[in-house]
Amino acid sequence: MRETLTIAMPKGRIFEDAADLLRAAHFQLPPEFDDNRKLILEIEEEKLRFILAKPMDVATYVEHGVADLGIAGKDVMMEEERDVYELLDLKISPCYLAVAGLPDTKLSDVAPRVASKYPNVASSFFREQGEQVEIIKLNGSIELAPLIGLAERIVDIVSTGQTLKENGLVEYEKICDITSRLIANPVSYRTKEQRITELVNRLAAVI
Ligand SMILES: Nc1ncnc2c1ncn2[C@@H]1O[C@H](COP(=O)(O)OP(=O)(O)OP(=O)(O)O)[C@@H](O)[C@H]1O
Ligand SMILES: O=P(O)(O)OC[C@H]1O[C@H](OP(=O)(O)OP(=O)(O)O)[C@H](O)[C@@H]1O
């Protein structure tokens, strides 16, 4: 009997883009996939179970082995080192990480303050540039920080650029491109290798 594969993923845009990708790969997603208030969704015929979590928690479920696979943004994978395998670049939910701030703000001689949801990524980026900064961790609405004087710079996700524009901010530097990745629990990868390879091949064929 085929064992069930459990896949963790975030609830928002990644879920929508992943559902499109799964449909393109001829997985029959039931209609309840489009009204995703439920936190656990199953495709019985395919022996697949999806669990919907916050982006930063996806890798936690996979690392602990309660999900065999996960779909997470590269941003999340870069921020926290995890004991998981990255199997595939799904090329969905594209965006990029950038340094932004108010136009014409000079960085002071003392360490400038940088607000971000990605303190580790931000800290490595400025360290590699040889710049000393003070990192301030925020959990969302990062663009507020320079507007109210909490920080001179932010490190955040940019997609359309609309949020920066509407808040009068400018991009100073692009850090890196981001897409979503298929990740696997190392033990599941060994014990359910055939099922996982089959899924990877079906997805890889439509990326
Ligand atoms: N404009 C964007 N803003 C944020 N994340 C984006 C954007 N465009 C693509 N992404 C990717 O989507 C991921 C977030 O996934 P998703 O939007 O599905 O999560 P969510 O459950 O809605 O999360 P949140 O609670 O952060 O709104 C990010 O880690 C990033 O890789
Ligand atoms: O370039 P854009 O298309 O405007 O997208 C970028 C914005 O989207 C994300 O925020 P999100 O909507 O996830 O909310 P958050 O502030 O709670 O993180 C990100 O943090 C930016 O604020």
From TrEMBL:
Cellular-component GO terms for this entry: cytoplasm
Enzyme class: transferase
This protein's pathway: Amino-acid biosynthesis; L-histidine biosynthesis; L-histidine from 5-phospho-alpha-D-ribose 1-diphosphate: step 1/9
Domain of life: Bacteria
Cellular location(s): Cytoplasm
Domain ATP phosphoribosyltransferase catalytic residues, every copy: 54-204
InterPro entries, alphabetized: ATP_PRibTrfase_cat, ATP_PRibTrfase_CS, ATP_PRibTrfase_HisG, ATP_PRibTrfase_HisG_short
Record keywords, A-Z: Amino-acid biosynthesis, ATP-binding, Cytoplasm, Glycosyltransferase, Histidine biosynthesis, Nucleotide-binding, Transferase
A GO molecular-function annotation: ATP phosphoribosyltransferase activity
One BP annotation, GO: L-histidine biosynthetic process
One Pfam family of this chain: HisG
The EC number(s) this enzyme carries: 2.4.2.17
Known catalytic reactions: 1-(5-phospho-beta-D-ribosyl)-ATP + diphosphate = 5-phospho-alpha-D-ribose 1-diphosphate + ATP
PANTHER family the UniProt entry points to: ATP PHOSPHORIBOSYLTRANSFERASE, ATP PHOSPHORIBOSYLTRANSFERASE ATP-PRTASE
Role description: Catalyzes the condensation of ATP and 5-phosphoribose 1-diphosphate to form N'-(5'-phosphoribosyl)-ATP (PR-ATP). Has a crucial role in the pathway because the rate of histidine biosynthesis seems to be controlled primarily by regulation of HisG enzymatic activity.
Family under the similarity heading: Belongs to the ATP phosphoribosyltransferase family. Short subfamily.
NCBIfam families (alphabetical): hisG
Subunit structure: Heteromultimer composed of HisG and HisZ subunits.
Comment block on domains: Lacks the C-terminal regulatory region which is replaced by HisZ.
Protein name: ATP phosphoribosyltransferase
Originating species: Peribacillus faecalis
Gene name of the record: hisG
